[in-house]
Structure formats: C-alpha cells, structure tokens
Amino acid sequence: MIDAVIVGAGPTGLACGIELTKRGLKSVLIDKGCVVNSLYHYPTNMTFFTTPELLEIGGLPMTSLNDKPGRVEALKYYRRCAEHFKLDVRQYERVLGIEGSDGDFVVPTDKGEYRARKVILATGYYDVPNLLNVPGEDLPKVIHYYKEAHPYYNHDVLVVGAKNSAAIAALELWWTGARVTMVHRGPGVHQNVKYWIKPNIENRIKNGEIPAYFNSRVIAIRDKEVDLETPDGPKTIKNDFVMAMTGYRPDFAFLAANGVHLDPTTRRPNINPDTYESERPGVYLAGVIVAGVFTNEIFIENGRFHGQAIAKAIKTASGPAAIAVPIT
C-alpha cells in the first residue's frame, strides 16, 4: 500500500510527486509514454512563450541560454527534477482503470497493479486530438502532431487551423520548401498567436506565398486531393499531407469511466476548490483537466501549483464538499 498513485508524469504529475515526497509520502507515477511525454512530442524546435522560472517545479531552478527556454532545455530540466527528488516513475505503462474506494484503491495497468490510499489524475489533454470528422481523416497522410518540417520538403501540405501551432507549422514548412496552404473556419489568423509569429504568417498570406482560405473548412480528404468548402464555393486542391492543427482535449471517456464527470452546466468536473478532490472520494485532479473543456485556462505555469494543495490534503485527508469552479 502506497500513499498515492499519480496517473501522468508530465510537469504537473511530477510536481504532485515532488510535493508528496517533501511531506514524507510515497507515490508512484505511471505514464503510458515517457517522462513529460507531451513535451517530448512538441515540435522539435519549439520555444516556450514563458520564461524559465514560470516552468519550475519543486523549487529547483531552471536555466536556459535565452530569455525563453526551448523544448530540449525543458526535457532536460524535468528529467533532472525526477532524478533529484528520486521519483518512482513507471514509463510506457498504461493505466486501465481505478478500482476500490478511498483509502484502498487498486490501479490495474497493462503491466500489473498498484494499491494506494489515494489517486491523482494528471493526464493532461495532449493525447486526444480534436477530429475534423470528415471522410478520409483516417488516411496516413493526416497528421495531428507536427514535429518538424524536413519530411515535407517539395510536397503540397494543407495546414488546418490558424492558432499558434498552425501558424508555426505553416511557417516552418514554407521555409523548408513545402508548398503550404492554410484553411481555417475563422475569419483570419487568431488574435492570440505569439506576437513575433503573427505578423510573419500574415505577411506570407498577404504576399500570396502561403494561400489561405478563411471562413472555410475541409469537407473530404483523398490520397492526392482535399476538398474545401469556402465562401466562394467548393474548391479542390492538390495535397500530399494534411497537418490538422485543430487542438486537443482531455480523455473525458477515461475520466467518466472512473467516476469523474463534467458538470453539464459548467462543463467542468466537480472538485473541491481547496484540495482538488473530485466527486469520487480519494481521487484528485491536477493540471489542465481541472478546467474541463476550457483547456486554455491552465498551463504549466499555474497547474504546477496544484500539487501543493493536493499533497497537503492527502497528508491531512480532509476538506469541504466538491463543487464546479472556474479557474482564475
């Protein structure tokens, strides 16, 4: 019997493990991928929008060569955190469910099972892409996770979306020699695109270097073509690859199957606002899943603090009733 099983070994899961360790509690972190698996799958050359100190966990300083750290620096930092605090991280192990009740949970995985007094879900939202729901989306040419541009040199690539990930992918692909087209259901490049990216992508569109269809959507994907619905009527364009940068969402099916549901009115899970305990006694939520469908509310910068409240609650095992609360 351990004190807590933490499902997810991203920055928030690691922060929870660190806070439990600081209080003398034993935990095991389980992730179906590697440590900070979502960050590993970020674009190779990605630079964070924030500064290093806002990504720190456990009081361990983070340094970077530039004002804003890159993906490789973040991976190194979080590996160092796991090693420094001697966290017990089980990688490439998938959690199948949560059995038992508060004080005596059994967490089965595809490699065994764990007994724990408490369970912390820190599963993030990067694992379930928002689908286009159009014919042909299951073709191998459709990609929901952009990594780097090189493999797409001298190919026709359609980028779906116009937020940060889509704008960065479109620019990198164009710089690398791909023939890039963008399509977005909105009226233009999203207003929240990073300030050093937005004018760049807008100028490429204005100059005709990256054709863009706004107020438009994909209606079908085939081996060598894509059909679009645009304000000027249907269009068919040549295509080798589709980068569907349509965002991601938490695995709500997994949460519901294990007793954590979204409030139908607030579209957030019911949690104790002080301890982050969910409607299922003994099961705590940490990170972006606390916000339900509003995944733009929680990032590493604020989700990293959830572990402090959760660890304190597990140490004392008390708190008021759970309610749905917005995150500010």
Give a nutshell description of this structure.
A hairpin with a 3-residue loop joins strand 12 (217-221) and strand 13. Helices cover 22% and strands 22% of the residues.
Number of domains: 2
Question: What portion of the residues fall into strands of 2 or more residues?
Answer: 15-25%
Distance between the first and last residues' Cα: 36 Å
Can you name the CATH architecture of the largest domain? 3-Layer(bba) Sandwich
The overall strand count is 17
Provide the helix percentage: 10-25%
- Secondary-structure-based class equals alpha/beta
Instruction: Please name the fourth-level CATH homologous superfamily of the largest domain.
Output: FAD/NAD(P)-binding domain
Count up the helices.
Answer: 8
Largest sheet features: 7 strands, mixed
Shape: globular
Poorly predicted sequence stretches spanning 5 or more consecutive residues? 318-323
Series of H and E elements? EHEHHEEEEEEEHEHEEEEEEHEHH
The CATH first-level class of the largest domain comes to Alpha Beta
List descriptors:
FAD/NAD(P)-binding domain; globular; 22% helix; 328 residues; alpha/beta; seven-stranded mixed sheet; 17 strands; 8 helices
Q: How would you describe the overall organization of this protein?
A:
- With 328 residues, this protein is an alpha/beta fold.
- It folds into 2 domains: 2-127 and 248-316, 3-Layer(bba) Sandwich (FAD/NAD(P)-binding domain); 131-244, FAD/NAD(P)-binding domain.
- 22% of the residues lie in helices and 22% in strands.
- The protein contains 8 helices and 17 strands.
- The strands form 4 sheets. Strands 1, 2, 3, 4, 5, 6 and 17 form a 7-stranded mixed sheet that branches.
- β1, α1 and β2 form a beta-alpha-beta unit.
- α1 (11-22) runs parallel beside α8 and α4 (164-175) packs across α5.
- It starts with a strand and ends in a 12-residue tail after the last helix.
